[in-house]
Backbone:
């Protein structure tokens, strides 16, 4: 029995995979709580896809792919923040346009690259087995920065999310805090590229947070429960992936989705079966 | 209750020639008045007279097209714990995972500033305000599970927890149960003892006459500002309410949205 759990850990690439997956699972889940509460799921998905051209350009310029993604993510975050602030078109329309355009540009650029070194499926669905030591460090540092910001600005993020009128009467810089939140979201997405990929990161952002929302009544507890669900799904997903040989990102997301379904059907406070 | 170092002499709220408008037509035109610290002011006027607009401008939710607002001689935002505002209808996310206690604690965040955690004093203040508004037993309830009257009391408790110099309440007596009305009126009296300036908009002209030191009668501009006796004259009333007024000798009846109010 113990062998079942230890066998994958014998491989160094699996150790790195587990570590990366765990960090990303926790980070996505905590950031995801605000994504769920502020209804930013569509924006998160769009942002992930919009990073694609950044990756392609970085590759064409022979730069670091993750740095390219990082630059693209921050540009997209600011772009969405700008477009949605003007109020000339509705926010989801603005996001839809930007999202499709950037995705097309990314695919077009990648299709011009003739080698197989940049595999589109790895970008779309992640390749947790190809995580390098450098990737681990980048994940750890960016993840730490994002979580520290969420912790230090807890009061401010809570108020701008719950009660914008109070934020205004307190003279909080609500617009800057909103943009900062978009940048944190962008950083989280970049960090997640390696493990779950562009296509599935939205699920890792939303599913653990939504599950935790059903189980808890206060934001700090919601974040803790989401983090635990994210961590468990990540680890369990990798084991599933190792033993039955399915794509790791997909396995992680499927486990998180199963947990959500179970909680949705059976959880006491807000679950379906206990609703009067 | 107040930090004396933050108060510049004379302690007062001054509104100087402000014009506020959404797009095109100004909702408030060239409004000026001064309120000394600790005064209770009723803001009255017909529907759409700009009462809510005035409050939103005072807390900085709407930009001024002209003029300025001075709190103790400085523009708003220079005093941390200065103005608390209880809107007519809270525009919060009722499904947000926060409890009643969390919401009242948010009232302390302005005083805390960046990067500081609530301390013993903040927790004690929150407990006291919950108690004062009679919602202490709901402290752990999610905000979305409250009745309308309970919600209003929670947001009044939050405004109290802000320990403001100036408290603005937009129609706190409209659409709430009798016990919440009573709790609100008791609160007005208690705040007076703490020398808090109160501005309350209301449709209830009787209440404005009997429970407030001053009345500000507006209809896009100031019609009259002074003691209830000075303000509630037949001319002022007909100027403000136009054709919704009926005069019977020395009695005037105002037919506004709410049941008609009668006074001498």
Residues:
């Amino acid at each position: 029995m113990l062998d079942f759990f230890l066998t994958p850990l014998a491989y160094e690439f699996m150790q790195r995979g587990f570590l990366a997956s765990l960090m990303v699972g926790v980070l996505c889940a905590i950031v995801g709580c605000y994504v769920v509460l502020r209804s930013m799921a569509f924006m998160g998905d769009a942002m992930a896809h919009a990073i694609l051209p950044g990756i392609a350009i970085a590759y064409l310029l022979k730069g670091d792919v993750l740095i390219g993604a990082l630059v693209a993510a921050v540009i997209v975050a600011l772009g969405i923040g700008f477009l949605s602030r003007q109020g000339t078109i509705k926010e989801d329309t603005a996001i839809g346009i930007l999202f499709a355009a950037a995705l097309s540009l990314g695919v077009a650029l990648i299709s011009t690259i003739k080698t197989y070194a940049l595999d589109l499926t790895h970008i779309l669905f992640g390749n947790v087995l190809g995580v390098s030591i450098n990737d681990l460090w980048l994940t750890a540092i960016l993840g730490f920065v994002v979580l520290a910001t969420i912790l230090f600005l807890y009061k401010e993020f809570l108020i701008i999310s719950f009660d914008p009128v109070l934020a205004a009467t307190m003279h909080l810089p609500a617009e800057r805090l909103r943009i900062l939140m978009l940048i944190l979201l962008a950083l989280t997405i970049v960090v997640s590229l390696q493990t779950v990929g562009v296509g599935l990161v939205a699920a890792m952002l939303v599913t653990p947070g939504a599950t935790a929302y059903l189980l808890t009544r206060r934001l700090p507890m919601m974040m803790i429960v989401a983090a635990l669900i994210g961590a468990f799904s990540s680890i369990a997903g990798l084991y599933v992936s190792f033993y039955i040989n399915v794509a790791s990102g997909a396995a992680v997301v499927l486990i998180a989705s199963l947990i959500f379904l179970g909680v949705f059907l059976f959880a006491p406070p807000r679950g379906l079966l206990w609703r009067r | 209750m107040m930090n004396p170092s933050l108060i510049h002499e004379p302690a007062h709220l001054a509104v100087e020639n402000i014009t506020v408008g959404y797009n095109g037509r100004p909702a408030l035109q060239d409004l000026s008045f001064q309120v000394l610290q600790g005064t209770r002011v009723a803001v009255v006027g017909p529907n759409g007279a700009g009462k809510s607009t005035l409050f939103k401008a005072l807390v900085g939710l709407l930009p001024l097209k002209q003029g300025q607002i001075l709190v103790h001689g400085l523009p708003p935002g220079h005093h941390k714990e200065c103005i608390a505002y209880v809107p007519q209808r809270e525009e919060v996310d009722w499904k947000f995972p926060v409890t009643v206690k969390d919401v009242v604690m948010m009232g302390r965040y302005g005083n805390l500033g960046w990067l500081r955690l609530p301390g013993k004093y903040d927790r004690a203040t929150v407990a006291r305000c919950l108690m004062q508004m009679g919602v202490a037993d709901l402290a752990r309830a999610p905000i979305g599970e409250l009745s309308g009257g309970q919600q209003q009391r929670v947001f009044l408790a939050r405004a109290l927890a802000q320990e403001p110099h100036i408290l603005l309440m937009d129609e706190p007596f409209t659409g709430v149960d009798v016990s919440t009305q009573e709790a609100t009126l008791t609160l007005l009296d208690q705040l007076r003892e703490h020398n808090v300036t109160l501005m309350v908009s209301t449709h209830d002209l009787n209440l404005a006459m009997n429970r407030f030191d001053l009345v500000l009668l507006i209809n896009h501009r100031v019609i009259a500002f002074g003691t209830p006796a000075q303000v509630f004259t037949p001319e002022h009333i007909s100027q403000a309410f136009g054709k919704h007024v009926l005069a019977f000798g020395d009695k005037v009846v105002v037919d506004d949205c709410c049941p008609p109010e009668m006074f001498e």
Q: What stands out?
A: The first helix of chain A runs from residue 2 to 6.
